[in-house]
Amino acid sequence: MDRWKKSVLAEIILFFILLSLNKSIILAFISIFLHEISHIIVAKRNGCKFNNFKIHIYGTNAEFINIDELSRKEKIQIYLAGPCMNLAIVCIFFLVGLIINNSIIDKIININLSLMCFNILPAYPLDGSRILEIILSEKILYKKVNDIISKISYMIAIGLIAIALIVFICSKSLNVSLIVAAIMIYLITKSEKKSAMYILMGNIFVKRNKLLRNKYIENKSISVYYKLGLANVMAIIDKNRFNSFYVLDDDLRLLFIMHEDELIEALKLYGNITLEEYFYIRNEALN
């Protein structure tokens, strides 16, 4: 399941949460539709290409091909577009509500406020998690970022269940939607952790496209211990830069330098062997 399909799944969950709070199906649909459309408009303006675009009963589904090739600023703009649209709707109808007293206006404000707050939560697969991921990735390796956001997501899932239980104890009314949302956040977070390695490998192609488009790409060098497995080295790749690894032994002597393209090839050929084992294979092949 790709990231945009996960995002739409989150919108489905939110759709039913909104219905549990407010029975206006049409208003909930329109709010989610505008939320998704705003993502699409900003993405298109930033040069994103679309693989597929569908309109469903619960909103829209746009699959972006090259979003990872955009700059950090452009990606943040795309993920913020949805919540900002909902905030704009809240502000507009709040002002309208000062002039016209109507229950529909109150429903529109409540739905869009809920939609905005839900989506800025830093839990997978919501917009807030993607924004936090982009910000942290500037200073921290992707695998570490994924671990941090996964822990936050699990805590939010537990928090939603706790809220549902507190509401049940106080009012004897069980909010099934909150529990479903918590379960889906948990399951999607679990799938994100499993797919982290595949995402890292896929970023090799993203970086290639960046190089072709911008004619340059930033480099990153890091020293690693020769007893480390190849998969472990893959986990510390910086997804935004071309990585070079200086392989050191116990005495801090440089055994060899491995670039990320060689790392990918070694994983394909030999699996998760250690750098030490690969060093001997490499020397035999050279000799």
UniProtKB/TrEMBL annotation:
<feature type="transmembrane region" description="Helical">
    <location>
        <begin position="174"/>
        <end position="189"/>
    </location>
</feature>
<dbReference type="InterPro" id="IPR008915">
    <property type="entry name" value="Peptidase_M50"/>
</dbReference>
<feature type="domain" description="Peptidase M50">
    <location>
        <begin position="25"/>
        <end position="100"/>
    </location>
</feature>
<keyword id="KW-0812">Transmembrane</keyword>
<keyword id="KW-0479">Metal-binding</keyword>
<keyword id="KW-0482">Metalloprotease</keyword>
<keyword id="KW-0862">Zinc</keyword>
<feature type="transmembrane region" description="Helical">
    <location>
        <begin position="78"/>
        <end position="102"/>
    </location>
</feature>
<keyword id="KW-0645">Protease</keyword>
<dbReference type="Pfam" id="PF02163">
    <property type="entry name" value="Peptidase_M50"/>
</dbReference>
<feature type="domain" description="Peptidase M50">
    <location>
        <begin position="108"/>
        <end position="159"/>
    </location>
</feature>
<protein>
    <submittedName>
        <fullName>Peptidase M50</fullName>
    </submittedName>
</protein>
<keyword id="KW-0378">Hydrolase</keyword>
<feature type="transmembrane region" description="Helical">
    <location>
        <begin position="12"/>
        <end position="34"/>
    </location>
</feature>
<keyword id="KW-1133">Transmembrane helix</keyword>
<keyword id="KW-0472">Membrane</keyword>
<comment type="similarity">
    <text>Belongs to the peptidase M50B family.</text>
</comment>
<feature type="transmembrane region" description="Helical">
    <location>
        <begin position="148"/>
        <end position="168"/>
    </location>
</feature>
